[in-house]
Amino acid sequence: MNPSKTKVGRDDIVDAVLSASRVLVSLAARSLGDVAEEVTLTQYRTLVVLASRGPQSLITLAEAVNVTPPTATRMADRLVRKGLIARRHEQGDRRLIRLTLTRRGRTLVDAVTARRRSEIANLLAPIPANQKLALVDSLRRLAAAAGEVPEQDWSLGWDL
User: Fold this and answer.
1) Which distant-in-sequence residues (6+ apart) come within 8 Å of 159 by Cβ?
2) Which of 50, 69, 88, 150 is the 20 to 30 A CA-CA neighbour of 76?
């Protein structure tokens, strides 16, 4: 963006978010480095959805990670075999099945999240203090627009 501009246009914002997304995707991939053989990025996203939103039906989970129900079924099968998620029947109706994070799955999410938080903290350290409030506000608005659950609302964990 041209520093002499006084008005930020839509293209400026889109370009800035695209650049930031490349940085964050790279950071996300690096933070999965130690567990890359255990889970794919989409499988990890599935674990994060379960950590942040609690137990989910297969259909709801498929929508949340933007995959088809058959793909979600295969992914859930793999994650169940790895001991990272479990299938639980609803008490009132045993036909309804919820997918839930296991303790092992929670440990994996917590480890990757801790690694990612550390990398993000290092990335943000050079940003001047007087610009951090605006950055926090903007990123929270972006996450809310995307339907993300705020980190502090789920990072303490769900009852397993």
Assistant:
1) none
2) 150
Alpha carbons 100 and 106: distance in angstroms, whole number: 10
Average confidence score pLDDT of the chain: 85
Q: Which domains does the chain have, with CATH numbers?
A: 10-154 (1.10.10.10)
pLDDT of residue 40: 87
Query: Which residues have a Cβ under 8 Å from the Cβ of 100 and sit 6 or more positions away?
Result: 50, 54, 55, 85, 86, 87, 88, 160
Per-residue pLDDT of 93-128, as tens digits, reads 767 889 999 999 999 999 999 988 999 999 999 999
C-alpha angle 57/73/144, rounded to 5°? 50
State the Cα–Cα distance between residues 126 and 115, nearest whole angstrom: 19
**CA 113 – CA 53 distance, rounded (Å):** 16
Task: Decide: 85 and 102 in contact? Cβ < 8 Å.
Answer: yes
Which distant-in-sequence residues (6+ apart) come within 8 Å of 62 by Cβ?
Answer: 68, 69, 71, 72
The SS3 of residue 125 is coil
Phi and psi at residue 5, to the nearest 5°: -70, 140
